[in-house]
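To whoever picks this up:

The parser on our side crashed when reading a file containing two proteins. I've narrowed it down to the boundary between the first structure block and the second sequence. Both blocks are reproduced below exactly, byte for byte. First block:
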Amino acid sequence: MCSSDLVGSAIGAAIGQGAGSPYEWGGGVEGFAKRYASGFAGNISRQTFAFVLESALREDPRYFPSEDAPSKVRFLNALKQVVVCKTDAGHSVFAYARVVSTFGSAQLVNTWQPNSTGSVGDGLLRGVYGLGADFAYNLAQEFFHFTRPRSLRHRH
């Protein structure tokens, strides 16, 4: 777990708090705490699923920037790496672990969500948001070098 997990959970809780979703959790500190805990638990479950699947499928979770390319190519690289990853052997493949862990954990979150936000459709939407967040993080890593975690930087 890193500080981005804590910050990401806080951002998600703030967005949910502002939107009043789920409304059953109310407002104030108690509502924010429930939203934060839900986001944090969803993030931990996603990371756990991803680690197990990446290990079993031998997928490399690191982001590989294309620093010397034009901006359009770099943008497309960030988008591509949401659903494509490298194997331990260096081949590009569909990122099964990333996609399955994102949608799997999004459905797991339904177990503690109230009925207003706990349907399969809500889980699918959370999965899409999760992949969208991955794209935003890839963009940050592509264009702002300091955002790349040292532990996930690849070596040439």
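<<boundary where parser fails>>
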Amino acid sequence: MLYLSDIAKYIKVKIPTIKKISAGVIDASATESVGVFDNNRSRSTRIALGGAKNTRYSKQQITILVHWGKTQKECFNKATELYKLFFGVSDVTISGNHIAFFTAYEPQSIGFTQDKIYEYLIPVDIYINKEE
């Protein structure tokens, strides 16, 4: 099982300039914060032909919220850095889970907060190999 906190730790190790990162919530009072969330898209369970014993991987969908800086450019640059962490990446191990590959979607601007902190969303699909 891959938890949101596992993804948050992975991001923190890969991009140490991110000081505030959390799972399921962000620090809205901070000028620079990242949150990792379950994606609320409808999930379909994938079962291979031949049943569960032949199913080799599962898919987990997450969204990364980038709450960063007072300018759109600042936020876009940090969102792009995070996007590149996942885009085209394969054969990674996170908390004992073998990730076959990620499918990352380009950062999407969602505007800014009342405090004028810009925000971007990055949807990511994670394909996790089944334990042998």
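After patching the parser it read the second block fine. The two ends are 14 Å apart (CA to CA). Strands lie at 21-23, 32-38, 57-68, 90-94, 97-104, 108-112, 118-129.
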